[in-house]
Amino acid sequence: MTEEEINVNMMQPPQIYVERTLAMVKPDAIHKAENIEEIILRSGFTILSKRRIHLTPEQASDFYAEHYGKMFFPSLVAYMSSGPIIVMVLAKENAIPYWRELCGPTNSMKARETHPDSLLCHVQYQALYGVDDQRNAVHGSDGIVNAEREIRFMFNDSIVEPIPVKQAAKDYLERAVNITLLAGLTELCKKKPEDPVKWLADWLIANNPNKPTINDNYKVEES
């Protein structure tokens, strides 16, 4: 590398990948949404989009589809559709792990013991507002694939960068495609339609878990 090339490289600012994640304030903590937003901003996040919505049971079921069949699924759906929530798209370098760390463990009792400074553990910060594994005040995407899916679900007009290749692509197929495709193929075998390709295509369109189906009567706030 020549001296000129070195000087040019030194003049260029470092490129930082700004990650995005979905943050959610759950029904039991909606009255503390402003406090939570203040903490988010003080922690260096940028709030790209924000809205207040009230999920129907069907929408809550679609959002948490990966937990379908688990013992807690019905109560989770009932809780998440019990009142309005605030959803936000947060941006920051390594936003996903930073937001998860700020939220603290999913289990509120554990959060009190291991993460006393996590979000909502005193008047500012999840365990003070959290009650158990489900009523734990806030939600954060657990990875790039889920962040993209959840942002698209809550903000259907959001532009999300293409899914990366390699392991991230495998994760995407595993978590966002294979589950739905397997369910569709199972139904296909049960129905045995004359035109299986067309039937499967129609089924996938009707049962697309990423299809934006949120209808809310609340004012959409964006910042």
Automatic annotation (TrEMBL):
For this UniProt entry, the molecular function terms from Gene Ontology, in alphabetical order, are: hydrolase activity; metal ion binding; nucleoside diphosphate kinase activity
- What are the entry keywords? Cell projection, Cytoplasm, Developmental protein, Hydrolase, Kinase, Magnesium, Metal-binding, Nucleotide metabolism, Transferase
Annotated localization: Cell projection, Cilium
The record's Gene Ontology cellular component field reads:
cilium
Which superkingdom heads the taxonomic lineage of this protein's source?
A: Eukaryota
Main localisation, per the record? other
Which Pfam families does the annotation name?
Dpy-30 (PF05186), NDK (PF00334)
Q: What are the GO BP annotations of this UniProt entry?
A: cilium movement; CTP biosynthetic process; GTP biosynthetic process; negative regulation of oxidative stress-induced intrinsic apoptotic signaling pathway; UTP biosynthetic process
Q: Which residues form the Nucleoside diphosphate kinase-like domain?
A: 18-162
Q: Does the keyword Hydrolase apply?
A: yes
PANTHER family on file: NUCLEOSIDE DIPHOSPHATE KINASE, NUCLEOSIDE DIPHOSPHATE KINASE HOMOLOG 5
- Identify its protein family: Belongs to the NDK family.
Protein name (database record): Nucleoside diphosphate kinase homolog 5
